[in-house]
Amino acid sequence: MRSLNEPLVSNGYTLAMTSERLGWLEPRTANLPMEQLRETYHQQGYLWLKGFFKRDMVLKFRDFFFETIAERGLQAYFEIITSREYEEFCTMPHLWNFYKEFLQGPPYLHRRKMLRFNIPGEDHCTGGHYDLIYLRSGTDRLCTSWIPLDDIPVEMGGLIYLEHSDAAGRQLEAEFRAKNAELPSEERISAYNRNMRANGWVSTNLAEMAERFNTRWLVADYEAGDMVIHSPYMIHAATLNNDPLLRTRLSTDIRFQCVDDEIDQRWAKDWSLGDDL
């Protein structure tokens, strides 16, 4: 594993560069037995699959995204979200068949999907959170796939994970559930209710979070073709894009569950601004 030359910053806070507070994600190959992959996922709260996709397929979609934006401007973003190209990427047979076996049942892909692009020089990024905060109206037996759509070295600020935080997320959610018990049903499932922080984030101070939970943030040099799966309780965040080559970071996050499990209907429509999720 390589050493980092520059500190990682998230929302104005610098992560400690010690081995007690910063480490590296552990990759796996997708051709391992499915039972072994499931066990790793349950133990770690995440599963980083190296080279899961064919690299050229990922880069082809990346080119489609940037060429469309270059030709038609940022207003084309929402057209890309609902485009045939994006839907075909998210439902490709290789991915669909993987989840059918991984989930041990017919998969369901949430229609609400996100494409995220982060430009060097921005001073804010995603704070520490776990996904179930935004999906409380459905099952917790769901998986998030975070897919880098280009090579994303640590300096570009891809997702980072708080080690062993699946258990912490479960504890936090149990506490919120108790606090929210007396709230009206619509407010109880919201990530923005009176018992939550703004944005539903656990904290924007990632350095303090590592100290509070006595653990470390795990980072990675992602490559086009990789996929990370994480549990709805796994705490994760992002750091600033400080790429010296000034490249825009592009990724997508999509969510799968068994079709027979309860579905959060708020996620059964395309993402739009102001949907409060």
Whole-number count of domains: 1
Mean pLDDT: 95
Enumerate the spans where pLDDT stays under 50 for 5 or more consecutive residues.
none
Global structural class: alpha+beta
Number of E-type strands: 13
Q: What's the helical proportion of residues?
A: 25-40%
**Alpha plus pi helix count:** 8
Protein name: Phytanoyl-CoA dioxygenase
InterPro entries: Phytyl_CoA_dOase-like
Pfam family, one: PhyH
Keywords: Dioxygenase, Oxidoreductase
What's this, in brief?
It comes from Tengunoibacter tsumagoiensis. Pfam families: PhyH (PF05721). This protein is of the alpha+beta class and 277 residues long.
In words, what does this structure look like?
The chain is α+β, with helices and mostly antiparallel strands. It has a single domain, classed as Sandwich (Jelly Rolls). Helices cover 28% and strands 19% of the residues. It has eight helices and 13 strands. It has helices spanning 34-44, 55-72, 77-81, 84-90, 93-102, 165-180, 185-188, 206-212, and strands at 9-10, 13-14, 22-24, 27-29, 46-50, 107-109, 114-118, 142-148, 159-162, 217-219, 227-230, 236-238, 249-258. Strands 4, 5, 6, 7, 8, 11 and 13 form a seven-stranded mixed sheet that branches. β1 and β2 (13-14) form a beta hairpin. The protein is globular and about 50 Å long. It starts with 8 loop residues before the first strand and ends in a 19-residue tail after the last strand. The mean pLDDT is 95.
